[in-house]
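in:
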């Protein structure tokens, strides 16, 4: 038993909790040893959760840890990041003189919107920028853990907002081998504010649950001996425990009440127990108010409504002078209604009793007055709105303004769930408000896109003016895109665009022209994603006039047009011109969608250097904004571009890093590009089994409906099957890919050239005659597109399916085209195929020369499977060459290689972790593995070992270097 005395003079006792306290100590010791843990402490109100936490925090186990302790409350329930502020508020990081705090170095500065009492007035966050705040809070915790073990202890977590819980979940999923202990205490009978988020946390494997049981008869007897300082009759403890249900708070109140009445713990006292009963808290509060002046009750009720506040503001709400407030607080402390260490009630059970004693109508009126008071004294809108939410009935007009303002602040914090709570109350009062529907839909776009779509549909019916409908339609289209509802998006955007064109006429004003271009851009984005809508979009595109590129919307439009131009496969010059105009026009920077589209189109046009530069810009954008989804997609896209130019080791590093990142994310099932790009590269490396395992895990719904992802996926599966000797399945998949591309109207020969692969499969299976139509189709597309790579691929397809000298001439032509293109791996394959054709024709000397070139090129590219095939054929032709073996660097995984290269360029472990969205511990583990595989002893040796002059070595994104100095 722990025996402490509180301000009332009565002992505050922790009885019967020795085992639970020992369990807490064990978890703390494990965290100090680097084994992170989560403890859920649960039990009914008054069972002693808070007392147990205080005993734990005051004990020896926490002396070696940085402890952040906070509590959630009903008034702030659901406010964005209120739980986080309860934990981190004591660090003082929002003060002006704290901006240079080492705790805020690097990415941790992104945590500030969550920590600020009132976010700034700049543009609110959107759903896409929720991640930066989570990322920043993670690094804030990491900075604390760099100083020593960290304990995060949050009481009354059933009142905690969803975004704080989502961050705790985010942190714990990245907490392996970190010195971290998270303790969450919740009341079992209370419905959580965010049940789904809390359930996700408790479902984690590292979770330990401590459930507090009622006190035993012996425990209650022990408490009685401490209170009365006298012997306790055996049946007294038993009776007290039965009446109070073993609840420590009720027992303590009962014993205190009995002592104040002069009762003793004997047989006579047992009869008094029955009189006071289990409702001792409520009864004692009512009795207290009956004995005191009305202003004591009024002060207690004001505190129950406001929570911890200044005496002046409590007095204003209670209509009691400040001096009387202080007098009332002192009196209420003596009788244990008020907490001993703060101007707040002692317990939520006491709060409920105080409000009940005030009468059924009083709390509602006081809530409204409290909201008005807080507004008048200039408190942040979120704080005022939290009171408004507790006021029953329809909010008054001024309240709705506060709720809207609070929603904007919550969005700025990256807390869309909180914004939605405020806006739903506005919508209740203004069911026909277009702006309320639109703002609420924006808040729900990430967390509940289906509901957001419903709201936007209704907003479109409410808005009569087409200029008002146009931006709503754009928002509707972008929201539909996240849940694969492109047909609905295209239909609505098309209807609004028709209305807009009819309304504006042929010569609209500049503002109207920009609005029309914005709708056109949204239509192209939404409709280019799925096969069901691509033809409709293509028809629209054919009627659109190419914009000048003078405004943000026009530049976005140009970027989107580049993709459709590239899909047509007619003019690489036009495609490149559009992309460069979009990228280099002055004004606001392009968004990530536009950057990706431009890079994709430039790559198809053989402008690979420009494409990689744009992708680096996109990666910087992702890192600077902690936009992990964009970062992963861009990294996967760059992997495929690097593979195309023969930088396969670098491509492998990008792809494997992307796959590792999504392993930590909840949305990983909705992306395929990381897995597809990695599988594609593994096949080049001679690991088709691993590639198939990776592709088998792709589970994205309706994958076959997507314009780009599905065809990358089919091509990877087909190549894996062929590498494993299953030519029939490979051919079927390739033909499926071709039919699907024809359905979409995608006529660019450089995009997943299935026709070349199909020709090679058929030729290898001695069925070249069946390839004629396929080859003719691909050749026609390639001649129309006309880039060196496309022409080289067409010559390859014709060469492998044409026997004799004519086939050799075509393959010689292919080598010439591809040698002048950026496609180094394709060049190596053409040399291999030419060498094979020469060997079959009996021209062994010429064959050996080509096969040696193929082996050298392929090995230089990192295409080990192709290099080994070329060597095998070379040896069979009488040539000599050493075995193709992986260099020590090739033993590294893709992520190890990426980490090692960044470290070799001077980036610190923390910088690498921040840039790759992984933990410092993960970086340390990768570097340890790198040193072991490469037989290195220090970081300085990395640069010389990793130097590969034969392979293009794209510079690390500039943000790695920009981040230096933050360590």
């Amino acid at each position: 038993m722990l025996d402490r005395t509180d301000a009332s003079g009565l002992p505050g006792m922790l009885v019967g909790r020795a085992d639970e306290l020992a369990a807490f100590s064990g978890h703390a010791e494990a965290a100090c040893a680097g084994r992170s843990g989560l403890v859920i402490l649960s039990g009914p109100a008054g069972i002693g959760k808070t007392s147990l936490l205080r005993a734990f925090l005051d004990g020896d186990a926490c002396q070696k840890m940085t402890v952040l302790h906070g509590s959630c409350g009903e008034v702030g329930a659901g406010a964005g990041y209120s739980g986080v502020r309860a934990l981190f508020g004591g660090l003082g990081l929002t003060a002006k003189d704290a901006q240079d705090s080492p705790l805020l170095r690097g990415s941790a500065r992104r945590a500030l919107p969550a920590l600020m009492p009132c976010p700034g007035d700049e543009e609110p966050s959107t759903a896409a920028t929720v991640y930066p705040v989570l990322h920043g809070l993670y690094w804030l915790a990491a900075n604390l853990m760099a100083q020593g073990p960290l304990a995060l202890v949050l009481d009354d977590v059933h009142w905690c907002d969803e975004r704080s819980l989502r961050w705790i979940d985010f942190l714990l999923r990245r907490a392996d081998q970190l010195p971290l202990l998270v303790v969450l205490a919740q009341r079992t009978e209370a419905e959580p504010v965010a049940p789904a988020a809390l359930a996700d946390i408790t479902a984690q494997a590292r979770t330990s649950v401590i459930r507090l049981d009622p006190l035993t008869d012996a425990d209650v007897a022990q408490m009685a001996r401490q209170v009365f300082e006298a012997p306790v009759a055996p049946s007294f403890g038993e009776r007290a425990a039965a009446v109070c249900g073993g609840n420590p708070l009720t027992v303590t109140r009962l014993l205190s009440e009995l002592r104040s009445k002069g009762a003793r713990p004997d047989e006579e006292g047992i009869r008094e127990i029955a009189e006071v009963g289990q409702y001792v808290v409520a009864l004692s509060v009512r009795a207290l108010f009956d004995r005191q002046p009305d202003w004591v009750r009024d002060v207690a009720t004001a505190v129950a409504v406001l929570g911890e506040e200044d005496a002046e503001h409590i007095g204003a709400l209670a209509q009691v002078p400040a001096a009387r407030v202080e007098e009332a607080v002192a009196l209420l402390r003596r009788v244990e209604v008020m907490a001993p260490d703060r101007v707040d009630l002692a317990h939520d059970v006491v709060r409920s009793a105080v409000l009940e004693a005030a009468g059924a109508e009083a709390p509602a009126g006081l809530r409204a007055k409290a909201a008005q008071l807080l507004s008048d004294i200039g408190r942040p809108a979120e704080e005022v709105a939290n009171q408004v939410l507790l006021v029953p009935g329809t909010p008054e007009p001024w309240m709705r303004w506060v709720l809207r303002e609070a929603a904007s602040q919550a969005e700025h914090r990256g807390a869309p769930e909180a914004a939605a709570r405020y806006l739903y109350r506005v919508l209740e009062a203004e069911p026909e408000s277009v702006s309320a529907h639109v703002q609420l839909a924006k808040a729900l776009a990430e967390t509940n896109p289906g509901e957001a779509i419903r709201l936007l549909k209704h907003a479109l019916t409410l808005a009569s003016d087409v200029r008002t409908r146009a931006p709503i339609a754009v928002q509707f289209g972008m929201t539909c895109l996240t849940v694969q509802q492109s047909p609905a998006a295209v239909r609505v955007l098309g209807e609004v665009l028709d209305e807009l064109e009819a309304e504006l006429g042929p010569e609209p004003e500049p503002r109207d022209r920009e609005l029309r271009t914005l709708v056109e851009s949204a239509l192209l984005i939404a409709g280019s994603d799925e096969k069901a809508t691509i033809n409709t979009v293509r028809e629209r595109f054919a009627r659109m006039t190419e914009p000048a590129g003078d405004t943000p919307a026009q530049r976005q439009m140009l970027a989107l047009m580049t993709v459709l131009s590239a899909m047509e496969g007619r003019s690489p010059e036009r495609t490149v011109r559009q992309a460069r105009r979009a990228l280099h026009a002055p004004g606001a920077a392009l968004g990530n969608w536009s950057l990706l589209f431009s890079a994709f189109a430039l790559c198809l046009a053989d402008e690979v250097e420009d494409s990689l530069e744009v992708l680096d810009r996109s990666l910087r954008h992702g890192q600077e904004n902690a936009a992990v989804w964009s970062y992963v997609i861009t990294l996967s896209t760059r992997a495929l571009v690097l593979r195309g130019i023969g930088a396969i080791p670098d491509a492998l590093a990008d792809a494997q890093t992307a796959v590792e990142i999504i392993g930590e994310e909840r949305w990983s099932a909705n992306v395929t590009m990381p897995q597809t790009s990695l599988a594609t590269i593994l096949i080049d490396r001679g690991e088709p089994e691993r590639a198939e395992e990776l592709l088998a895990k792709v589970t994205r719904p309706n994958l076959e409906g997507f314009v780009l992802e599905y065809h990358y996926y089919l091509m990877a599966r087909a190549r894996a099957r062929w590498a494993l000797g299953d030519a029939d399945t490979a051919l079927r998949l390739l033909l499926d890919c071709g039919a699907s591309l024809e359905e979409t109207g995608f006529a660019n020969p450089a995009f997943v050239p299935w026709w070349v692969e199909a020709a090679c499969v058929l030729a290898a299976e001695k069925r070249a005659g069946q390839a004629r139509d396929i080859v003719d189709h691909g050749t026609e597309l390639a001649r129309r597109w006309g880039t060196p790579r496309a022409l080289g691929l067409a010559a390859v397809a014709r060469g492998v399916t044409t026997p004799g000298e004519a086939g050799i001439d075509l393959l010689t032509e292919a080598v010439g085209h591809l040698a002048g293109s950026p496609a180094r791996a394709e060049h190596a394959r053409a040399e291999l195929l030419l060498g094979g054709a020469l060997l079959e024709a009996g021209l062994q000397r010429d064959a050996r020369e080509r096969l040696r070139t193929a082996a050298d090129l392929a090995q230089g590219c990192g295409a080990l499977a192709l290099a080994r095939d070329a060597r095998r054929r070379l040896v069979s032709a009488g040539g000599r060459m050493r075995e193709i073996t992986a260099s020590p660097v090739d033993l590294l995984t893709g992520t190890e290689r990426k980490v090692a290269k960044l470290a070799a360029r001077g980036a610190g472990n923390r910088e690498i972790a921040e840039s790759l969205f992984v933990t410092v511990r993960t970086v340390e583990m990768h570097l340890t593995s790198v040193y072991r595989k490469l037989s290195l002893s220090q970081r300085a040796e990395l640069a010389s070992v990793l130097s590969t002059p034969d392979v293009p070595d794209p510079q690390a994104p500039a943000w790695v270097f920009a981040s230096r100095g933050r360590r």
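note: The chain has 48 helices and seven strands.
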